[in-house]
């Protein structure tokens, strides 16, 4: 049986042939965002070719999809593969989505494997996303509630790997005409986006090319789940969230939403009339604390948005050349972020406070720790999407260590409703006295 998408009818709990009702809002739907999105993925030179072609004029006409902005000549130059039944423009978009979707799935698999192998006491971004679409069973007495057993996680990971493997096979994809689409999909709807059955090709319909880029990727991920045999087809997000675990495990859209929302974040909540705390109504998945070290290493470090990179991961100890006594200078800048370009913070939201603390703890236990850089801003300023918050203290730090000991870097955002939101907490051993 084939399955297909349609955005005008309600979804039911059938195992195949049901219609798609809800469509995600594409975050790349405006001409500017589409150009920025392509710039990040196919490069500045390709963008320049697009702008030199008819794309520029079509962008001025505010076309609704990037598909309509790419000329045949440009698509012919940018595409890397011919797909059965596809013209040059369709080749470009199918190839673009097919090459990007495995990266989204790989990111989710890596996070799930880390969660499986290194369980944490706190609920991480991947676990929060997982629990949203795959409800964990009740916890036994004495254990943290809402935790999946390793077997369930392993099943989800194995299925995601099979989905990724399917998408990576270009021979599984083909383009069909509107007439063929309406004839072959189980609901006989020519306005379907795509359809697939267990072990069948993934057929791309003309309506697919009217979607935004994120929706094209999530559609391919959804169809790959059908290809490996996950034939339940509950589509609307509100209904997917309410599925019990046994049904979600075989529901294609549950896997598509898990991958999509882990990679891009959940949909933005509606903007309330009065200001409300940011952490109550806005996802902490977009927040991060970042520090750019210029000395003693040139390294960008961060924690937040489901990722982290510590200075100690690059070098655990900073020492003077042996044998010598040489002060060690630390210089850099601290930044705090609350959103991304693709998901700007809604208006009328209050920001969390930000704090910084750099402590030096001497190796000599008779000496006290010293605060080298300690600041707090209860009301930072918001400048714009993916721009650092404006703080009322200098974000730059510059100090020199002359004694052996440890330096602890802690930068975090906090709110009355949360112990912390985004935290960077790292410790470096320093040894300026490295003499014999």
Structural features, described:
With 436 residues, this protein is α+β, with helices and mostly antiparallel strands. The chain has 2 domains: 3-264, Collagenase (Catalytic Domain); 278-434, Coagulation Factor XIII, Chain A, domain 1. It contains 14 helices and 18 strands. It has helices spanning 31-42, 44-52, 55-60, 72-78, 88-117, 125-133, 150-167, 178-184, 213-227, 237-241, 245-248, 252-264, 278-281, 311-314; strands at residues 3-4, 173-175, 194-196, 202-204, 276-277, 288-295, 299-304, 307-309, 317-319, 324-325, 328-337, 349-350, 353-362, 370-377, 396-401, 405-414, 423-431, 433-434. The strands form 5 sheets. Strands 8-7-6-11-15 form a 5-stranded antiparallel sheet, with no helix packed on it. Strands 9-17-16-13-14 form a 5-stranded mixed sheet, with no helix packed on it. It has a 4-stranded mixed sheet with strand order 1-3-4-2, covered by helices on one side. A hairpin with a 3-residue loop joins strand 6 (288-295) and strand 7. Helix 1 (31-42) crosses helix 2.
Q: Considering the protein shown, what is the CATH homologous superfamily of the largest domain?
A: Collagenase (Catalytic Domain)
Helix coverage percent: 25-40%
Average residue-wise pLDDT: 79
* CATH class category name of the largest domain: Alpha Beta
DSSP strand (E) fraction?
15-25%
Strand order of the largest sheet: 8-7-6-11-15
Q: Distance between the terminal alpha carbons, to the nearest Å?
A: 77 Å
Poorly predicted runs of 5 or more residues: 1-48, 53-69, 272-276
Structural class: alpha+beta
